[in-house]
Write a sequence for this structure.
């Protein structure tokens, strides 16, 4: 997909191109992303405020979504992304999920940069306060931000995306969440397995029997523990994937026509929207395979995902969440404060 990202410059340098859908939307203006508020915890990310799925919007209230049609579900590559999604043999699950978090964030960074480009015809960004006054995925899904008083507030999409990108960058760069130093195999072990210095007196252990599970004997287990990841690691990975999904959903619902429909590749078999599909199907394959997103999370893009499941672009193992993390492997933690 390198050619896709490299072609973004020519799209904006050469003026708007007419597409089959008629004139592209007029981008608005918007200031640069604001500074991150003092609190960076994920309580600032509110859940969607949406029309219930059993209460459809009035007819004609939502424009047609071309990307939910099978002919616009094609990919810019052949095959599927299962070889890039499946956990390799002898690679710890924590290491693999961390790799996926970095890779998927890198892809969405490129795509988010596309919608922040300035159109040479108007001198304004494609995603701005004027074009996208709220962070949404269509008119039935709106994502809110929790302010310092924990109140859900609507913010422009460019602001929400900017804050999310900064939060994820901070998480990925934090060695406490994504440690980069390999675990030492020569850690000191003291009397009765205690790893803290305290003399030579053995520390009595509770009685055990042959039926005691290894996880009980070795202490609490969680995803990523053998590779040195903290107990909250899987929660953080799921939150990262949830926020990346929201950016994808906004891009499709608000920017599929402009710019992605109008981006033409030097490769005749691909274009802006097919390469966008390739990025998203890769993301969706990983997210579904490991159970990183719920069905409710996926609602804004479910029709497109259903097409890919039906035609095999999302393989059966991923479609059925064959490698989903079991609840018993997840740390007991108070849910993220979401509205």
């Amino acid at each position: 997909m390198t050619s896709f990202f490299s072609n973004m410059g020519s799209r904006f340098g050469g003026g708007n191109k007419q597409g089959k859908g008629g004139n592209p939307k007029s981008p608005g203006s918007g200031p640069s992303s604001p500074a991150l508020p003092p609190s960076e915890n994920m309580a600032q990310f509110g859940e969607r405020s949406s029309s219930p799925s059993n209460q459809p919007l009035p007819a004609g209230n939502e424009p047609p979504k071309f990307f939910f049609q099978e002919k616009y579900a094609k990919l810019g590559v052949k095959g599927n992304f299962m070889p890039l999604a499946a956990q390799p043999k002898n690679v710890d699950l924590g290491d693999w999920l961390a790799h996926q978090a970095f890779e998927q964030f890198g892809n969405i960074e490129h795509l988010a940069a596309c919608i922040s480009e300035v159109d040479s015809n108007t001198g304004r960004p494609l995603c701005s306060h004027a074009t996208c006054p709220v962070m949404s995925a269509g008119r039935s899904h709106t994502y809110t931000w929790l302010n310092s008083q924990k109140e859900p507030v609507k913010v422009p999409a460019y602001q929400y995306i900017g804050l999310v990108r900064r939060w994820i960058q901070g998480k990925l760069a934090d060695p406490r969440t994504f440690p980069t130093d390999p675990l030492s195999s020569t850690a000191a072990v003291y009397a009765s397995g205690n790893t803290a210095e305290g003399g030579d007196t053995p520390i009595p252990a509770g009685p055990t029997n042959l039926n005691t599970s290894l996880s009980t004997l070795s202490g609490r287990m969680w995803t990523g523990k053998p590779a040195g990841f903290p107990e909250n690691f899987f929660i953080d990975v799921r939150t990262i994937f949830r926020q990346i999904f929201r950016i994808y959903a906004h891009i499709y619902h608000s920017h599929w026509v402009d710019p992605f429909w109008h981006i033409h590749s030097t490769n005749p078999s691909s274009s802006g929207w097919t390469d966008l599909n390739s990025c998203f199907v890769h993301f969706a394959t990983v997210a579904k395979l490991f159970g990183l997103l719920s069905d409710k999370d996926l609602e804004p893009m479910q029709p497109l995902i259903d097409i890919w499941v039906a035609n095999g672009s999302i393989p059966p193992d991923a479609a059925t969440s064959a490698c989903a993390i079991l609840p018993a492997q997840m740390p007991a933690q108070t849910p993220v404060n979401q509205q």
The CA atoms of residues 95 and 275 lie 27 Å apart. The radius of gyration is 23 Å. The chain has eleven helices and four strands. The chain has a mean pLDDT of 74.
